[in-house]
Structure formats: structure tokens, C-alpha cells
Amino acid sequence: MTAKYAPPMVSVERQPRWRRLKNPLISLVSFGALLLIWEGATGLGLIEPLFLPAPSQIAQRAIQMAEQGTLLGHIVASTWRVTVGFLIASLVAIPLGIILGFSQTSRAIFDPILSFLRPLPSMSWIPLSLLWFGIGESQKYSIVFMGAFAPSLLYVIEATKSVDPLLVKAAQNLGARPRDVMIEVILPGSLPQILSGLKVMLGIAWTCVISAELVAAREGLGFMIMNGKEYFQTDTVVLGMVLISVTVMATDLVFRFFERRILPWKA
Amino acid sequence: MRATMSRRQILASALISVLATAPLGATLAAEVETSKVSYGGSSWLGHYPVWIGIKKGFFEKRGLSVDWKLFGTSSARMGALAAGDIDFAGTGSISALALMAAGSKAFYVVAAPESYATVEGIIATPEIKTVKDLKGKKLGVTFASSSHVLVLDVLEQAGLNPNKDVTLINLPAGDTPSAFKAKQVDAVATWTPAFNVLRAQENARVLLDDREFSLYKQYQFGPGPDVLTVSRTFADKNPKATAAFLDAFFEASEFITKEPAEAASLLQDLTQLPPEEQANVLKDIEWTGRAEQQKIMAREGDFPKGLQALADFLVRHKQIDKAPKVDSWIKTQVLP
């Protein structure tokens, strides 16, 4: 067989090692340059540390807090609150969203409630959550739950509605009951989109935990940021922000791991 | 001799008094470098003189138009001062010390307006009779506030560890009464008006007030006394306007002392407290007049010493990283 008739091999051809490393290297260099410029600008006094501390100062604060043993406590407290609040929101939103996506009557019943809940920011729930749940951990979970639930539900409804109606029809023609259609057809068909939506919601759940930790908290990354703000410790504030980003990236990786397990064909 | 004046005589004497006082007002107004001044305040008692000064026209007669800007917390107010958004700010000294510790040279401390040892403290359920009884209990307090400092101090005095022996819960001062009433906490450390509200409750007792603070015993210095601060740029550029502002401020605090009933009525718009309760709050405040300011704010005076001791206390309790040399921020030269 001549090269003229050979099938295209582009997709399976391995790129040279240097080319595979090119983009990560560019990212690394640009990030390093940003840190250097930032450090230089604060070192030369162009930026007052009160307004933006140098990266080295933030690193020192991280070391100090790690040595005091408080840093890990803040990370664990927030991660736990996000995990619990987000899991409860997902566990309620997925089945309910599938039902609402599948049944127009149910959607008509729940639509007004959902339209009311959807625009409410998690922070607006703080006064009521304090009255309903007190000042313990359940109040913090509830804030994360309320911030994550309505958008998650909408993602699931949309994902359910996007399942090919021909597949649903085919299953129904073959005698499948509504419950079977939901579990055997709609759930697998909408799962990739549901998981993509939940991945976005996980990030949003992290913004909710900051609101949750504004009141009656003594640890957590949100608390750390707010307490740092009260004492003008801008390095603590920026460190808290960095840790939220890093933790979100880490939880995203964990989420991707489970996504690959649940949807092996997507991987 | 007729005891009453004719209408013509009254008009003439009124005209004479207007003519006599007008040049003084005009001179004061003409002297200041700028007529626009912004002040960061809240409904807390430390800001009463500025509110009264605006309402009674004490600033206006000195050629100053004061723009009142409301801030919920001292840190927000001091942040605005550091950013150059306001010219004057009243604040609890903890925020001022924290900003000094962060290295900001953006402001001067120019006065210590008042003291209030009996309107802040710890309120607990009746079975808690001593500070030691707080062991294993939940105590609600606004972190990074003077009440927080009071709690850390009295726990230390009683040999209790604030991180292990007592569960401290961060609560905004306004939420302390509802949390206490709902039995979500066993005690709260708070200040007026929440303190006054709780003090009147049946199942609540005042465990202690600011007089138990260690520095109060030594310097008559509360856990976070108020200070009046001014933007360094503003004061350096406008020394006469700064002096005029302070002059009006002290006139207002003297007015509050002399005319508490009228002051309480003027303050209602600001604090929303019923007149009786407002009058009670005023009774608990000791205003420091202009004559005493030079004395207490002087280098060797009690106030800078107490402020320095408070800074050292905050470092010891890991609230700030290093104790600033507070003398460098105190400026008494601008006092009238």
C-alpha cells in the first residue's frame, strides 16, 4: 500500500516530548513572570503591602499558620462544609430534576417555587438559617445547600430535557414503565451533562461557604479571610483566596476521577 | 424704669449682636483651607459628637460642611481612611492598632473622645457566677472587637485557655441578644445597645464589665477605647480645617454633657433607640473635654501608655503580628 492510500494517522501519532511540554512550560513561565513582577513591584515600594502583599509575604504567612497548626484546620473545615452541603444539594437535585425534566405537570407545579429560589444569593439566607438551624454546623451546610440547590436542579432539568426523545419513545414502545424509562434511559442519557453541571456547581458551592462562614464560625477559609480583613492582615486575606482556588482545583480533580469511573466511555 | 424694651430697641440690639458675631464666623469660615470634610461614622456612641455637631451647626459656623458616611465596622472605616476616601474617622482602638501594625502611616490619632467602662461586658445565664464557670460553655462575641479582647483578657486572668476551655463563637454584636435568648450560647460579650438590652433580661446577669479588664485596673483603660483619627494627608495640608473640626467636635461633646435631654432627642435619628434608653446610654459615657485632651494624649500621658500596653496585649494573644510604636501616630499639635 502506498502512502497515497494510507489512512490518516494524525490522531494516533505521538507528539515529540518537547512539544507536549511546550504549553505547560509557557504557563509555568508566565506564572513565574507574574510572581516576579508582583514581588518586584512590592519590593520597590510601587505597591503598598497593605493593599497587595508580596508573594513572599503570603508564603511566610502560610508557613507561620502551618507551624501554628491553624492552616489545615481552616482548609478541612471549609472543605467539609462544602462537601456536606453540596452532596445534600446534589442528592436532592438529581432525582427531583429528572422528575421535573421528564414530567411537564411536575414542572408546572414546581416552576414558581424554582423561579423564586433561583435568583436568591446564598448570603440572603443567613438570617433565616440562623433562626432555623441556630449557629452550629448545620446552619453552614444549609447556606451551601441553598446556594447550590436551585442552580443544580436547573442543570439536571435541562440535562434531562436534552435526552433524545426517540430513545424515550423506543423504550416506551418496548413496554418500559415510566420508572424504568427514567432509570434505564433518561439517567444514563443525561448523566454526562448532569455531571458537567455539578462540576460548575461545586465551584459555586465554594463561594457559598464564604457566606456561610461570615457568622458564627471560628475556622474555615471564609472565616480566615474575614478575620484577616478585620486586622488588616492582607497577606492572610490573599492566602485564604489562594487556598480556596487551590482547594477548588483539587476537588475538581477528585470530581474528574469519579466522573471517569462513572462515565468510562467519556474518558 | 421700664423693664421691657421697645420693638425698635430689640431690633437694634439684634442687629448689633449679628454684626458683632458675623465677622468672627466669617473669619473662621475664611480661615479654613477647605470647607468640605468627610467623616466615617456609625451609630456607636463614639460618633455622637460629630452627629450632634452636624445637627447643631457647630461645624457649619466654623466654615466646615461635614459629609457623614456610614460604615458598619471600624475596620471598614479605617480601610476607607487608609485608602483616602474619608478625612476623619472615629474608631475603636483595636482597628487603629491593627492598621498601625500593618504598617499604614496614612493617619494620625488626634483625640480620645470618651470612656465607657460600664456599657460593655459579659452577660451570662444565672448559673454562671464567675469567669471560671465559663469552662466548657459557649460564648458569643464579635471577633476582632474590644469585647473579644475583654474575653481573652478575663479568661487569661482566670487561667482559662480561650482555644480549649471555652467555645468562642464569632457573632455580630447585633445578633448577640437573639443568640442568647434562643439559648444558642451560654454567655455573650457585647456592648451597648445590645448590652443594655440583655442587661434588662430576666434570665441574664452581668458577669463583668470593662472595669475587670487588666489594663483598666492599671491605666483606667478599656479593652478598645475609641480614638478620633484624621487622614495624615488631610491634616498636613489643612491644619486649620483640622483644628476647626476638632474645635467643633469638643463643643459638641460639651453640649452632650450639658444638654443630655436635647442631645438624646437629636441622636434618635442615628441610633433608633427610645428616648429613655438613649438618655441612659448617655449617662454611662464620660466625655473627655478639650482641656483634658492635651494632658491625656501627651507622650507620657496615660492614654498612649495604655494604647501601647494594648498593642503588646494583642501581640501576646496573636491578634496582630507586631506591636507598633503608637507614639508615632499620635499628633496632639492639631488639638485646639
SSE-based structural type of chain B: alpha/beta
Cα radius of gyration of chain A in angstroms: 24 Å
Model regions low in confidence, pLDDT < 50 over at least 5 residues of chain A: none
The global form of chain B is globular
Indicate the CATH architecture of the largest domain in chain B: 3-Layer(aba) Sandwich
As residue ranges, the low-confidence spans of chain B are: 1-5, 17-28
- CATH superfamily membership of the largest domain in chain B: Periplasmic binding protein-like II
Q: How many runs of DSSP E, i.e. beta strands of chain A? A: 0
CATH homologous superfamily grouping of the domain at 78-218 in chain A: MetI-like
What separation lies between the terminal Cα atoms of chain A?
33 Å
Instruction: Please state roughly what percent of the residues of chain A sit in beta strands, choosing from under 5%, 5-15%, 15-25%, 25-35%, 35-45% or over 45%.
Output: under 5%
Radius of gyration computed on alpha carbons of chain B? 22 Å
CATH architectural category of the domain at 78-218 in chain A: Orthogonal Bundle
Q: Figure out the total of helices of chain B.
A: 14
Q: What fold name stands as the CATH topology of the domain at 78-218 in chain A?
A: MetI-like fold
Structural class of chain A: mainly alpha
Query: How many separate domains of chain B?
Result: 2
